[in-house]
Design a protein that fits this description.
The complex is a heterodimer of chains A (429) and B (256). With 429 residues, chain A is an all-alpha fold. Chain A has 16 helices and no strands. In chain A, helix 2 packs antiparallel against helix 3. The longest helix of chain A is centred in the first third of the chain and has 37 residues. Chain B is of the alpha/beta class and 256 residues long. In chain B, the strands form two sheets. In chain B, strands 6-7-8-3-9-10 form a six-stranded mixed beta sheet. In chain B, strands 2-1-4-5 form a four-stranded antiparallel beta sheet, with helices on one face. Chain B has eight helices and ten strands. Classes of the chains: A mainly alpha (429), B alpha/beta (256). The interface between A and B is medium-sized, with 28 and 37 residues.
């Protein structure tokens, strides 16, 4: 019964199911490749004693955390759309355990249909990497399928399953049936934080000066080879948070209420953009933070071909997962705007105008994600170039490795957004 | 002679048209609204009130018959013309306000003006003036979720009225308000109707709310079953008649 209902539920929204599937697929592919590449080197970590290479250990921890976070956002994206379905089940007398089992069955079906395929693709890719990747041939190492790596992959996948169970259980446990029934899928989480509460009494201009300085000063220090670039970059992330909160978001408001008040598409779209940006500021910080850590490690390991390849792989992996996190977080929020777009249509916005609003909003959002990241990461790369630690060609490749996932997620996000808000536009409210 | 602002002739709405599940929700309705009228649409649940109001106001497309607003047949309009027509002629008020939660009250109210290509310098004073009238000036920088139901409904009315529409279409506008806010809203709509001559067509379940209008149209099973004009009646007498009409209709159901 539960199995039949779960399959029906998965079929009811094919695009969401597909994106949920692809998250598990890519996550399992990435972690399989990552651990097997790492274990192929005698410099890599061992399962229990990781003391040989602290950077590798550190990256493993970061990879695990990012994987779990990405799964959480993908799960939220999928489960939020099921709010009404779950609410009806709860109202009809289903217990939390039954509802969790219902959600978990869907998740497990997705996992069964994705993880084996991800690993299978990984097994097929590994021989290709041995022959096609110059870094592997140069290092004289053969990447193989390592039993320790498989054990790690198994442990991580078990963690992902446990994590998904916990997320699904907490979703049904913390949301009252009424709230789910009336929630269109938008993220209603509190947007404030301990930092914003701390600064709440301060005038805006003071906050702008403080966080502007926190944003800019670490960039200047990045060019000094004698300081810890990583430490200053991390300090700068606080600046990134403040700049988004206190400079970019208020300037969007000013542009809407003053300069572009007579431009209907900007007035409508920038309100959505402001919300997208505010809910994504932690993800943007994480995106920049992870990139900086890995660029530092890659620069540090120049000349060690295998290490460079390993950390470049983790760099690509994390850029993909973090860009996906931004996409899922934004899509979950945007799925709750179906009614807003119908309202805009009733007020007099044509479908073409609404299409333009979705496009402009996402171009600006992903443009800002890329732009803010590029200021920091660009400064870091420029500093490394000036110091002779990286060549222009390597920098260009790294920028591509960072920007391509962002661009792909932008394209997917537009598809999901339009499907959510522009279908049935003329349906009465 | 009064000017006809909206006219529906033999209007039919068939859901799932030309399918085995076809369902006729409105059966050839004839309805006329004159300029400056304040009309309440009443009827039991599922009678077709919202379908009726959606089909006479460009929100939904009727299946057969004709609907003319200010002499123009809706069906002949292109989607562009309908869009322009909506923000120039019609104002919509809904039960659950339908404000954009991502936008402040100021931005919500300014939207129809920016659509109508009103000059930038004129938008802010007009929004502030309207907010002043509705007593929400101090809330303009707030987001809808930071305001009470009554405040949100007043902001929704500001948005509906900001372009000086000739017709206001309201679907259960007091449905989510307490009695004090409902009464206040009805005074606002009544004043608007009497002083500015705006035509209002409003769906409601509540006889007391209906007593603020000038005419009652009672819909049942997709037909206009009865009509009641206030004429020279006092609000109290009119209210009494509305209650009696509703009671008779309900009693008729009991006897079936």
């Amino acid at each position: 019964m539960i199995l039949r209902d779960a399959i029906r539920s998965l079929k009811s929204d094919k695009s969401r199911t597909f994106f949920y599937w692809i998250t598990y697929f890519l996550t399992s592919l990435f972690i399989f490749l990552f651990f097997n590449i790492m274990m192929s080197s005698d410099k890599g970590m061992e399962i229990i004693t990781s003391g040989k290479d602290m950077a590798a250990t550190f990256i493993v921890v970061v990879v695990v955390v990012i994987c779990l976070m990405c799964i959480q956002f993908a799960n939220n994206f999928y489960v939020h759309s099921k709010g009404k379905d779950i609410a009806v089940r709860l109202i009809c007398g289903a217990t939390f355990t039954k509802v969790t089992a219902y959600l978990m069955t869907q998740t497990l079906i997705i996992m069964l249909m994705s993880i084996p395929f991800g690993i299978l693709l990984g097994i097929l890719i590994i021989p290709l990497m041995n022959t096609m990747l110059p870094a592997v041939t140069a290092a004289g190492i053969t990447i193989g399928i390592h039993s320790d790596a498989n054990l790690l992959v198994f442990i991580l996948l078990a963690m992902i399953i446990a994590w998904s169970t916990a997320i699904n259980f907490s979703f049904t446990y913390t949301n009252a049936a009424f709230a789910m029934m009336n929630n269109d899928g938008s993220d209603t989480a509190k947007e404030g934080s301990a930092i914003s509460d701390f600064f709440s009494g301060m005038p805006l201009i003071a906050k702008q000066i403080i966080f502007g300085a926190l944003f800019v000063i670490p960039i200047i220090f990045l060019f000094n080879p004698n300081v810890s670039r990583m430490a200053f970059s991390m300090l700068g992330l606080l600046g990134v948070w403040g700049v988004i909160n206190y400079i970019i978001a208020p300037s969007i408001t000013t542009s809407m209420n003053k300069t572009n008040l007579d431009k209907s598409k900007i007035l409508a779209g920038n309100g959505f953009l402001r919300k997208d940006l505010v809910i994504n500021k932690s993800n943007i910080m994480l995106f920049i933070g992870c990139a900086i850590i890995q660029i530092s490690i890659i620069a540090d390991r120049q000349g060690q071909a295998f290490d460079v390849m390993l950390f470049t792989f983790s760099f690509i992996l994390m850029n993909c997962l973090l860009a996906m996190m931004i996409m899922f977080k934004t899509s979950t929020e945007q799925a709750g705007r179906t009614k807003f777009f119908r309202v805009l249509n009733q007020i007099g916005f044509q479908e073409d105008a609404l299409k333009a609003i979705t496009r402009n909003e996402l171009v600006k959002l992903y443009g800002m994600v890329a732009g803010i990241s590029l200021i920091y990461i660009g400064a870091m790369l420029a500093a490394l170039y000036l110091n002779g630690e990286l060549t222009i060609a390597k920098i260009a490749v790294m920028l591509l490795e960072m920007l391509v996932p962002v661009f792909i997620c932008f394209a997917v996000n537009i598809f999901i957004y339009r499907k959510a808000v522009l279908t049935d536009l003329n349906k009465p409210l | 002679m009064s000017e006809v602002i909206l006219e529906a002739r033999n209007m039919k709405k068939i859901y799932n048209y030309r399918t085995p599940n076809a369902f006729e929700a409105l059966h050839g309705i004839n309805f006329t609204a004159e300029k400056g009228e304040f009309i309440a649409i009443m009827g039991p649940s599922g009678a077709g009130k919202s379908t009726f109001i959606n089909n006479i106001s460009t929100i939904d497309q009727y299946t057969e018959g004709s609907v003319k607003i200010k002499g123009t047949e809706i069906r002949t309009m292109s989607s562009n013309e309908i869009g322009t027509f909506r923000f120039k002629t019609l104002g919509f008020i809904f039960q659950d306000f339908n404000l954009l939660d991502t936008h402040t009250l100021f931005e919500n109210i300014a939207l129809p003006l920016s659509l109508a290509d009103v000059k930038k310098s004129e938008i802010e004073p007009r929004v502030r003036e309207m907010a002043e009238k509705m007593n929400i000036s101090s809330l303009l920088h707030k987001f809808p979720k930071e305001c009470s139901g009554g405040q949100r409904q007043r902001a929704a009315i500001c948005r509906a009225l900001i372009n000086n529409p000739e017709i206001i279409v309201a679907d259960e506008p007091t449905g989510n308000l307490d009695s004090a806010n409902s009464t206040e809203l009805m005074h606002i709509l009544q004043k608007l109707n009497q002083e500015s001559g705006v035509t209002i067509i409003m769906v409601t379940h509540d006889p007391l709310i209906t007593s603020y209008t000038s005419r009652l149209v009672f819909i049942k099973d997709g037909n206009i079953e009865r009509e009641l004009a206030r004429g020279d009646m006092s609000q109290d007498d009119y209210f009494q008649k509305i209650v009696e009409l509703n009671a008779e209709e309900s009693r008729g159901e009991l006897k079936k």
